[in-house]
Amino acid sequence: MAVAKSVLPVEPAAQPGIPLGLVRTRAELGAVVGAAGEPGYRAEQVHRWVFSRGQADPQAMTSLPKPLRGRLSEVAWQRWLQPLKLEVDADGTRKGLLSVHDSARPPAEIEAVLIPGRSRLTLCLSTQAGCAVGCPFCATGLLGLRRNLSAPEIAGQVLWAQSSAGRFPTHVVFMGMGEPLANWEAVRHAIDLLRGPDGFGIGSRRLTVSTAGVAPGILQLAGEPGLQVNLALSLHAPNDRLRDRLVPLNRRWPLEPLMEAVRTYIRATRRRVSFEYVMLADVNDTPELARELADRVGGLLCHVNLIPYNPVPGLPFEPSPDAAVKRFAGILEGRGVAVTVRMPRGRSIHAACGQLGAAWRAAQR
Predict the structure, then answer these.
(1) pLDDT at residue 99 above 80?
(2) How far apart are alpha carbons 22 and 240 in whole angstroms?
(3) Which SS3 state, helix, strand or coil, does residue 69 take?
(4) Secondary structure class of 208 (helix, strand, coil)
(5) Half-sphere exposure of 350 (CA within 13 A, CB side)
(6) What predicted TM-score, i.e. pTM, was given to this entire model?
(7) Which residues are CB-neighbours of 3 under 8 A, at least 6 positions away?
(8) Do the Cβ atoms of 325 and 287 come closer than 8 Å?
(9) CA 7 to CA 349: how far, in whole Å?
């Protein structure tokens, strides 16, 4: 039986674009306010409006003098985020289609997803418009890369989340559109905009950066042990022959150097790595591959997340049967590997893992 859903179009007049020009660090805001000839405490006021109240429109910052609001508006509207459509799954998952625009770049469309839990609200945000990795089972990868997002465009998706759900997310995962470590400079800056008292107040350990296997990027993370964010690696296969097919990035950074980068990261940070493994029927779900995966990750400080495949229209892949997933998980557990089978969220609105951009691709066919 299909899961019921509701599709809620967001009229531009009802929800105007969210200005992103003031999504900046305290120091950057201080420079902006100082350039306007205002005292330093005005920067702190702006910071509270944006990062504590979720209000990035200077004209709504009533504690500021009108001349300053006007000057800040000139900065703020150089970058904006426009909600175009909102879809809500029966399980509570919300997906937003958003247009991002920087005055120096052409507009691009992205998707962001909000996943509610018992005591958390997780934002799955995008770091690129499209993706260059090209995994054959992933709708986003088949779109190709449109462009990188800037740090305010990445972190500013929190403002969409706050306006959509009425509260700030408690957790953020860099698992939406794009390969985060291929846009590392912007992602690194976005992390500073998201975490702690200088940003949106989200704890570092509630931030997860995902990668399809950019080994140098993992080493960059290892070189910043104080960053304290989580790392998730989309593995999907335990050997190079199969992973070359499923994750084309593997041809550039095969498993041996990739896993050495992971080991370096664990030694430097003493943090557990999550291995994401999508379960594709008759492709990567056999007992032999489960044993091979256990040999590959065994002994590491890690956790394996088995992800039932979320179908994408027009692609030839199917989800592994429940019995195959259970058998695969049992083999890993029997060999001492911590494992969780993830429950799909937002499938009916194409908001689940690997489905972002599916509706665009279907419309183009």
Answers:
(1) yes
(2) 45
(3) helix
(4) strand
(5) 20
(6) 0.94
(7) 89, 90, 91, 347, 348
(8) no
(9) 8
Q: Is 353 a catalytic residue?
A: yes
What is the maximal distance between C-alpha atoms in the chain? 69
Residue 3 has pLDDT above 80, yes or no: no
Q: Which two tokens stand for residue 20?
A: 């992103």
Q: Which two tokens stand for residue 196?
A: 């702690």
Q: What digits encode the pLDDT tens for the residues 168-185?
A: 999 999 999 999 999 999
Query: CA angle at residue 122 from 118 to 125, to 5 degrees?
Result: 165
Please pick, among 131, 135, 138, 353, the residue that the annotation labels catalytic.
353
Look at phi and psi of residue 148 and say left if phi exceeds 0, alpha if psi is from -120 to 50, else beta. Answer: beta
The answer, yes or no, to whether residue 190 has pLDDT greater than 60, is yes
Going 211 to 153 to 170 to 121, the CA torsion angle's sign is: negative
Torsion of CA 97, 170, 139, 81, to 10 degrees: 30
Six-digit token string for 55: 């209000």
Catalytic position from the list 109, 111, 153, 179 = 111
Q: Residue 14 contacts by C-beta under 8 Å, 6 or more apart in sequence?
A: none
> Where is 307: in which H helix or E strand?
strand 302-308
Query: Residue 109 is inside which H or E element, if any?
Result: strand 108-116
One-letter identity of residue 319: P
